[in-house]
């Protein structure tokens, strides 16, 4: 466990180079950030569109058959069928941008087929129940066509809104490949903002292998990134989520660049390459000014991130409700034992190097901010009160971090977050330490359930954290959570 501080802001706060500013900080000298289109509101808007689309279809039904129960069943069934088909996944083929999304016309065949099945099934069930209220062919066709037209109109409005926002708030991306092709693609994306992609840097083999003169004038367009450190800085400062690999003569991207950008948590795209044999077809509307767009990472990885976030929200929400009396008891004990200031806030490094404010129960007051930022362990500090020592030993001081999980700063399971001072130090000492920030940091992790807490080997923790990321599955998260719960009955603390 690390030293605490009630505040880490101020003129003497230590911040390693290249780390993004804390959420909500002023950071006037930082480069302008891109503003990705939120994914969840887009999916929610599509669900709402499908729910509303069933209402016009009710107009085609005879008055005696317009029951609320029937309309509700049709709505639930339609949403379930569309969800099973992946029609609510804005990132089914990658990240948030106009060129990556399916268009309305891409979706029409899937929507039409599922609504046809839905109405045929509804008519069959009504006929089986009683022949009197059975839907005639004309009524069935009219209800189906009204439902399909309404769904197309409402979903089309959502797609138009999403494209407009994508154009106005483009996502930052890196373009990777041979210099001429990379410059050409970057220029095309600047000329066509409707795709919602803003190139903020070029990564080319020539930039990596050939040293540039110190007084050479920079080429026009996005800056050329000449080292892995430059790539990391560009990813963090511009909130880069995507890397566009321009297909070379052999159509195979550079493995070093793939590994580097995957390590920084970027979604990887191959632009302009022909589809490999046996590959799933991509809709014609999914392209960047005529260049084919295909993901370089499996779809299962992105679906897994959605499932992991769902587990975090459900688990943290339920635990916060269940632990509310215990949280109040701990807060009262800290207040009585150590005075005002029940919680402390400390700056930590999260996924892809982004800073956030971690919450814990206060168990010790450091002498100053420098001690809070740079002292490694205070488990045996004489300033610890009996209450503080008990909270640390039982890990109850970590409970407020459930709020960090609910906010999205952390996950229930992942590498433990550390302070910027130690992230910079450990990254220079241990190979692979920076790579552990490829995934959200966690309340507990694989290293912790193997006893690597407090003053234990950083090299061992790093190895366990990267092994967890490389072999992640939702079931492994559940196993780690169960193992953590079991270890609480024999607490060791730190």
From TrEMBL:
GO terms for cellular component: membrane. It is a multi-pass membrane protein. It is found in: Membrane. One of its GO terms (molecular function) is phosphotransferase activity, for other substituted phosphate groups. It comes from the Bacteria. Its main location: membrane. Residues 1-12 have a biased composition (Polar residues). Residues 1-35 are annotated as: Disordered. The chain crosses the membrane at residues 108-128, 134-154, 310-334. Pfam families: Bac_transf (PF02397). InterPro entries: Bact_transf, EPS_sugar_tfrase. Residues 308-489 form the Bacterial sugar transferase domain. Keywords: Membrane, Transferase, Transmembrane, Transmembrane helix. Belongs to the bacterial sugar transferase family. NCBIfam families: EPS_sugtrans (TIGR03025). PANTHER family: COLANIC BIOSYNTHESIS UDP-GLUCOSE LIPID CARRIER TRANSFERASE, UNDECAPRENYL-PHOSPHATE N-ACETYLGALACTOSAMINYL 1-PHOSPHATE TRANSFERASE-RELATED. This is Transferase. It comes from Streptomyces roseolilacinus.
